[in-house]
Specification:
This protein is mainly alpha-helical. The protein has one domain: Glycoside hydrolase, family 3, N-terminal domain (TIM Barrel), CATH 3.20.20.300. It has helices at 22-32, 47-50, 55-65, 76-92, 94-119, 132-141; strands at 2-3, 39-43, 69-71. The chain has a 3-stranded parallel beta sheet with strand order 1-2-3, covered by helices on one side. Helix 1 links the parallel strand 1 (2-3) and strand 2 (39-43). Helix 3 (55-65) packs across helix 4 and helix 4 (76-92) packs across helix 5 (94-119). The longest helix has 26 residues, at 94-119. It starts with a strand and ends with a helix.
């Protein structure tokens, strides 16, 4: 999994941050570099995006550019606006709807790979998880030691 950044790579796309740039995500990452995994946006609530456009516009642009999953970490109203905009765009535009389908397929594949990976590893023994050493470390990290 990769996370985009809200930086402008002027040599590739002087007008848009990487999160919203199909030249960066689809052209460079997927095309030239051949990356096939999941691409997650940086937080669309950050000022680099939020102060220039609404979450609804940014969400559609990020998916269109090639992001598979979006982060909207701080504002529930932005999350709701992005959801409405994404649904509306998918209903209106079959190419966008197909793009969302591709993103969902990549996310499902990542989840299946994670489950298979976890299944191939034995669960830690009960004597390890919750052991005295682990509790002592947790206390120390919590400042209670």
């Amino acid at each position: 999994m990769l996370m985009t950044a809200h930086v402008v790579f002027a040599a590739l796309d002087p007008s848009r941050p990487a999160t919203l740039s199909d030249q960066v995500i689809t052209g460079l990452l997927r095309g030239k570099l051949g990356y096939r995994g999941v691409i997650v946006s940086d937080d669309l609530d950050m000022n680099a995006i939020a102060s220039h456009m609404g979450a609804d516009v940014a969400a559609v642009a990020a998916i269109r550019a090639g992001c598979d999953a979006l982060l909207l970490c701080r504002n529930e109203e932005h999350q709701a606006a992005a959801e409405v905009a994404l649904i509306r765009e998918a209903e209106r535009d079959s190419t966008f709807r197909a793009r969302v389908g591709d993103a969902a397929a990549r996310i499902r594949a990542m989840k299946r790979a994670h489950v298979a990976n976890q299944a191939s590893r034995p669960a830690p023994a009960r004597a390890i998880v919750g052991s005295f050493e682990h509790r002592r470390l947790a206390d120390r990290l919590a400042g209670r030691a």
